[in-house]
Design goal:
Residues 297-322 are annotated as: Disordered. Residues 152-222 form the PAS domain. Its EC number is 3.1.4.-. Its cofactor is a divalent metal cation. There is one protein chain. The chain is α/β, with parallel strands linked by helices. The protein has four domains: 4-159, Rossmann fold; 163-264, Beta-Lactamase; 331-366; 378-389 and 418-629 and 637-756, 3'5'-cyclic nucleotide phosphodiesterase, catalytic domain (Catalytic domain of cyclic nucleotide phosphodiesterase 4b2b, Orthogonal Bundle), CATH 1.10.1300. 50% of the residues lie in helices and 10% in strands. It is built from 30 helices and twelve strands. The strands form three sheets. It has a five-stranded parallel sheet, with helices on both faces. Helix 4 (112-117) links the parallel strand 6 and strand 7 (121-124). The protein is elongated, with a radius of gyration of 39 Å.
């Protein structure tokens, strides 16, 4: 039996032997002619004498061609039989022929009743064998082959229906003819709401008229267009899509359809304009918040050592260059860059409208980048997993009971507070240079027998006039500092009161910088110093991921979200307000207290690492770049413009968050010996966590921190590269911190030196 292959576009279809069903009540020359023609053509042939047997045979064999005798109505109703066959699903692609009588003595009758009944065409009786054969051959290469191709379309539509990309097909006149389920899901419409609607009737795009003209001018000449545009969902939400629109050439060599393929824009998908017709700008950034080369050198150290005007000017240019070249590219950052570029060539009304759009974008929650960890760098991967997630789901029945039932230290349980005038000489000497960045917190830790927070707190708070602002006595402040310090765990190698004192010192140092002083109010300074003091109170020496995996009471209390930071803030206010002896807020006016409390909580929560890049992104886009633009445009002396950037409530919040974040993880910017000591302490705390995870059968959050195999230099370099460099570049560009950046550069060189020698320890062997 002959088998043929049919070409259908790029598909090659395999067509089996055709099957023909002859429905004739009686055998005659006409039925015999078709039977002979089937044999000659190599088609399988079945014969049915009644409508019932015909229907049964068809449902069993699924014939390609059915030929029904319509010459003698006394035997059966041919049209009724055709209608019965057409009601079956199997008949969708079947060709049905009606054999009619030849009338020479009357006018030709209409074929419409036959078409309405479901017949494909009619055959005027002609019992000639060759006439029957020619009819079958014409059917094979005409209607049958067309139906065969349509049948193959079912597989194509199945692919479209299951595709995860949104697909829309329109006519040449832009009338919607098909959308797939992915399109319905993305846009929020049901297919019935769209079919046969013109695109202009469905407000699913936010493209400007000139942009639409650009797209149409491309696709109407038969070229595909690819790019990025904004679509509007049924509920009014705007989404950014990467779209490809393809014109489909049909009958007469003309465009008969347009196929649109869309997917939601993703920060990892670079959008390129590939259309030959338009030269649209494309954001082809090469990096997006990814692990960067640490050798980039955030600045030339030699240019920062001079404190003269030339040195400052040179550093300012360096800062602006760093800000503009930063690769912290969340999707919103790209949007802002596109709008900024568009403003340059826009008329004044458009530029002003874009300014308003930028203001909205800079003050809403749109700045979190989509991050992927570096699989090839386990140190970075583990740090990101350990610090920026809320843990894996519990794999163990073990429960980690933490501090929720602990008895916290209160004022009455502590020894009598010391006075600022009673500080021993050794401690006084250890605090002599506390206003300098190179102040040695470990010397104070040793002199105070691991109680540096009370002493340093008394001195710094006195310098900033905290008691006067709060209207509280020095004895109340002393009691408060003692209560807070007593609730830090001295058993933690890193997260203890020495870390708190170190963050308090860095906070005070940043508050003394001129740009910061221009920005913040007295209440902001008070809030920053208090937040630094309490930001890790009652820290268990374990990460949020550990607590979530262990099912700790705190993780349950705070729904696995910012567990520790929420606990630090809440406990700080509980400890402060439960006893009048240490309640530094008791004499404040209610509204001022509420404002202060809000700022403290916001700053403590900002130390949570899951939103690290969100905070840094906002700071760069809302503060660094506008200030750099003012300086580049020669507006250094325009105090009002700078004040507008610095003093807006939204930007002050960003600055306070950035300040405490930088203070919290400033260890790599400390003098080398302090940097090394802090690296050893945090590594030991992570080692202890890994040990406990393995003992309890919990998921190991940071497997690279195994005390037997971990390379501390590698872990430090990964942390610096992923979290520190961009953040301190941005903070330095704002606050002018040449000494910190010099220490950071030197410490990077130190860790690289150890790593280059394949040493895994803190210091080289003697």
């Amino acid at each position: 039996a002959p088998v043929t292959d049919v070409q259908f576009g790029p598909m090659r279809l395999h067509q089996d032997q055709l099957q023909v069903l002859l429905v004739f009540a009686e055998e005659d020359e006409q039925s015999n002619g078709f039977r002979w023609a089937c044999d000659k053509a190599g088609f399988r042939c079945n014969i049915a004498r009644t409508p019932q047997s015909a229907l049964e045979c068809f449902l069993d064999k699924h014939h390609d061609i059915i030929i029904i005798d319509h010459r003698h109505s006394r035997y059966f109703d041919a049209e009724a039989l055709c209608r019965s066959i057409k009601t079956t699903k199997a008949s969708e692609n079947t060709v049905i022929i009606c054999v009619v009588q030849r009338h020479t003595d009357r006018e030709e009758s209409s074929i419409l009743p036959l078409i309405s009944a479901g017949f494909t065409r009619r055959y005027v009786e002609n019992s000639s064998r060759m006439a029957c054969y020619n009819e079958l051959i014409q059917l094979e290469f005409g209607q049958v082959q067309a139906q065969f191709k349509l049948r193959a379309c079912n597989s194509l539509f199945t692919a479209l229906e299951k595709s995860q990309e949104a697909i829309e097909i329109t006519s040449e006149d832009h009338v919607i003819q098909y959308v797939n389920p992915a399109f319905e899901t993305m846009m929020g419409y049901q297919i019935g709401e769209l079919i046969e609607k013109e695109l202009t009737e469905v407000p699913i795009n936010e493209k400007k008229a000139d942009f639409l003209d650009t797209i149409n001018s491309c696709i109407k000449i038969g070229k595909e267009w690819q790019g990025m545009y904004y679509a509007k969902k049924k509920n009014g939400d705007s989404i950014q899509q990467n779209v490809k629109i393809l014109p489909v050439i049909g009958q007469g060599g003309k465009i008969r359809h347009y196929v649109s393929i869309s997917r939601l824009c993703n920060d990892n998908n670079k959008v390129e304009k590939t259309c030959e017709c338009i030269q649209a700008e494309s954001q082809t950034d090469t990096q997006t918040c990814r692990h960067k080369d640490m050798r980039k050198g955030s600045l030339d150290v030699r240019s920062t050592t001079s404190r003269g005007s030339d040195g400052i000017s040179q550093r300012r240019r360096s800062s602006m260059a760093r800000v503009h070249s930063m690769t912290i590219e969340a999707p919103i950052t790209k949007v802002i860059n596109i709008i900024n570029a568009a403003q340059e060539s826009s008329p004044m009304p458009v530029a002003e409208a874009l300014d308003r759009a930028l203001e909205i974008l800079r003050t809403t929650e749109l700045y979190s980048p989509q991050l992927g960890t570096k699989d090839e760098d386990p140190h970075t991967s583990d740090l990101v997993g350990g610090l920026m997630t809320d843990g894996l789901r519990r794999l163990s029945g073990n429960e980690y009971i933490l501090s929720a039932k602990q008895t916290h230290q209160v004022a009455g349980s502590l020894s009598s507070p010391i006075s600022l005038n009673d500080i021993p000489p050794r401690i006084t000497q250890a605090m002599e240079n506390e206003e300098q960045w190179d102040f040695d917190i470990f010397e104070l830790e040793a002199a105070t027998h691991k109680r540096p927070l009370v002493y340093l707190g008394l001195k710094i708070f006195a310098r900033f006039g905290i008691c006067e602002f709060l209207n509280c006595s020095e004895s109340t402040l002393r009691s408060w500092l003692q209560v807070i310090e007593a609730n830090y765990h001295s058993s933690n190698s890193y997260h203890n009161s020495t870390h708190s004192a170190d963050v308090l010192h860095a906070t005070a140092y940043f508050l003394s910088k001129e740009r910061v002083k221009q920005t913040l109010d007295p209440i902001d300074e008070v809030a920053a110093l208090i937040a630094a003091t309490v930001h890790d109170v009652d820290h268990p020496g374990r990460t949020n991921s550990f607590l979530c995996n262990a099912g700790s009471e705190l993780a349950i209390l705070y729904n696995d979200t910012a567990v520790l930071e929420s606990h630090h803030a809440a406990l700080a206010f509980q400890l402060t307000t439960r006893d009048g002896k240490c309640n530094i807020f008791k004499n404040m006016e209610r509204n001022e207290y509420r404002t202060l409390r809000q700022v403290i909580i916001d700053m403590v929560l900002a130390t949570e690492m899951t939103k690290h890049f969100e905070h840094v992104n906002k700071f760069v886009n809302s503060i660094n770049k506008p200030l750099a633009a003012l300086e580049e445009n020669g507006n250094n002396g325009d105090g009002e413009s700078i004040k507008t950037v610095l003093r807006s409530p939204e930007n002050r919040i960003l600055i306070k968050r950035m300040l405490i974040k930088c203070a919290d993880i400033s260890n790599p910017c400390r003098p080398r010996e302090q940097c090394i000591e802090w690296a050893g302490r945090i590594s030991e705390e992570y080692f202890a966590q890994t040990d406990e995870e393995r003992r309890q059968g919990l998921p190991v959050v940071m497997p690279v921190f195994d005390r037997n195999t971990c390379s501390i230099p590698k872990s430090q370099l990964s942390f610096i590269d992923y979290f520190i460099i961009d953040m301190f570049d941005a903070w330095d560009a704002f606050a002018d911190l040449p000494n910190l950046m010099e220490h950071l550069n030197n410490n990077i060189k130190y860790w690289k030196g150890l790593d280059g020698r394949n040493l895994r320890v803190l210091r080289p062997p003697p």
